[in-house]
Amino acid sequence: MTRPPTAAQRRLIDAADPVTGRLRGTPAQLAALVKRGLAFRHPRPPHDHFLTPAGHRIREQEPAAPPDPAPAQPEPGVFTARTGDAAEPVQDEAVRAREVRSAWQGLLELRRMTNPDGAAERPCGWERSHLVQAAALALEAAGHRPAGPDADGYRVRATAQPEAVAVYGPRAALRAWADTLERAGWQAGEYTEPRTRIRYVLASPRRV
């Protein structure tokens, strides 16, 4: 049986980026996780470290000890996909662009590692369990802008349908968003809500 991670390693794993699994730690800490097969070093600069599928499984397990009763504070700089929520924080655009590129490259690497055939063109299991975040990341990585207080962009929302999200926004942009999601490995098309007559994009991760 594989030896469980140390308490310090478990803290690093639990603090990994919720979208991409990107890790933060000292070189020695990260190297120890790589040695145990819980992380990998991305081959492209800036050579960030990300959780492997085994590392993701560790994070999804219940911790061996109860968490600190003090409320956890979000770690500065942790990447979060922009879904078009007006409450999302404003960030320096150059910094944001670098983080989005890194997150998207990390997600492609996760696809290669977790899809049975190693395909990076098809969404992986993580995306199917984080539909809204995955679709929003694909849109932002392609250069589309989310909606906000001073921007009329995309808004990604969950739906009642299994493995499907809806993308709302300016009607003129719907086709471009659908095309972007299709290139990212999703099935996407434009639809009209029967009661409101609002047009939107319905998208789901492609399986083949």
Would you write up a description of this structure?
The chain is α+β, with helices and mostly antiparallel strands and 208 residues long. The chain has 2 domains: 7-60, no CATH class; 93-205, no CATH class. It is built from 7 helices and 6 strands. It has helices at 7-14, 27-35, 53-60, 93-114, 125-129, 131-141, 174-183, and strands at residues 39-41, 49-51, 155-158, 165-168, 186-192, 199-205. The strands form 2 sheets. A 4-stranded antiparallel beta sheet has the order 3-4-6-5, covered by helices on one side. Strands 1-2 form a two-stranded antiparallel sheet. Helix 4 (93-114) packs across helix 6. The radius of gyration is 18 Å and the shape is globular. 32% of the residues are buried. The model is unreliable at 63-77 (pLDDT under 50).
Strands in their spatial order, largest beta sheet: 3-4-6-5
Helix/sheet category: alpha+beta
Total number of beta strands: 6
Please indicate the count of domains.
Answer: 2
Q: How many H/I helical runs?
A: 7
Which short descriptors sum up this protein?
globular; four-stranded antiparallel β-sheet; 13% strand; 6 strands; alpha+beta; single chain; 208 residues
What's the layout of helices and strands?
Elements: H1 7-14, H2 27-35, E1 39-41, E2 49-51, H3 53-60, H4 93-114, H5 125-129, H6 131-141, E3 155-158, E4 165-168, H7 174-183, E5 186-192, E6 199-205
Antiparallel strand pairs: 1-2, 3-4, 4-6, 5-6
Helix pairs in contact: 4-6
